[in-house]
Amino acid sequence: MTGSGVALGIVAAVRLLPFVLLGPAGGVIGDRYNKRRLLFVTQSSSAAGAILLAILVALNAVTFPVLIVISLVLGCLTVFDNPARQSLISDLVPRETLANAVVLNSVSLNVARFVGSVMGGTLVGLVGIPLCFVINAATFVAIIVSLARMRSKEMTRAVRARGQVREGLLYAVRTPELLFPLMMLAVTGILAYEFPISLPPIAVGTFQGTAVTYGVMAAVMAGGAIIGGLVSASRTAQRRSASLAITAIG
Predict the structure, then answer these.
(1) 129 to each of 123, 134, 219, how far by Cα in Å?
(2) Who contacts 36 (Cβ-Cβ below 8 Å, separation ≥6)?
(3) Residue 33 in 3-state DSSP?
(4) From CA 132, how far away is CA 110, in angstroms rounded?
(5) At a CB cut-off of 8 Å and minimum separation 6, what does 90 contact?
């Protein structure tokens, strides 16, 4: 709509602002309440957001301020969706296979990024943006059906306790295995994770490309993440983890 990298950055920042303000609260909600029910709400609401975007784009009624508001709402949903969805893994698999399950979950997400980036970029050119949002909304059906088929009696019960945020922060500070990865993520996120902002202007401006160009760029990044995730999942010994992490950050 604007052709501005600054505008793109603002929309992305608004989408992530709820994480900064409400992130710990989202984790507490994910612990205290039934994760399946919470995910039913967040996933259904996200699907409704995709339908709303499809209608607005089809009617040529979407504006930059409207897009900011929708991004903020979707960001608020994700604050509660992410902790519940990611911690759900520990409710579904035995502790001895949890590490591999987490890595394989990351691999599956990157497979989706890889396939979705190519398909999304192609579909934008073939069927247009509104229908892409409709397809996006339809994909949430698979998630909702999966949640409905889970056997809740076999899952870990919700934890209800006071002071969980304070306790969690203190535990992270006192545990180097958590503290250092969190610090690395903070540095990477602030200084190096600019790809969602930089790639679209490069695809369109520098290479005079289209949504397909950006889709290929995103797919290549996802392909690298798939390879890295599979290598990580296949490792039985965690030797030289610090050296690998420092090399990756470098």
Answers:
(1) 8, 9, 19
(2) 88, 147, 150, 152, 155
(3) coil
(4) 20
(5) 98, 156
Q: What is the pTM of this model?
A: 0.74
The crossing angle, in degrees rounded to 10, of helices 64-92 and 35-58 is: 150
Q: What is the Cα–Cα distance from 26 to 105, expressed in whole angstroms? A: 20
Residue 235 burial (10 A CB sphere; 0-12, 13-18, 19+): middle
Residue pair 81/43 in contact (Cβ under 8 Å)? The answer is yes
Q: Which of 56-65, 189-198, 241-250 has the lowest mean pLDDT?
A: 241-250
Both tokens of 214, joined, read 């950006």
CA distance 153 to 96: 20
Q: Show the tokens assigned to 226.
A: 């798939």
Distance CA 125, CA 29 (A): 40
Task: Return the pLDDT at 59.
Answer: 92
- Show contacts of 12-19: CB within 8 Å, 24+ apart: 12/71, 12/196, 12/197, 14/68, 14/71, 14/72, 14/75, 15/71, 15/72, 15/74, 15/75, 15/78, 16/75, 17/72, 17/75, 18/72, 18/75, 18/76, 18/78, 18/79, 19/75, 19/78, 19/79
Contact (Cβ atoms closer than 8 angstroms) between residue 38 and residue 29: yes
Query: Rounded mean pLDDT of the chain?
Result: 83
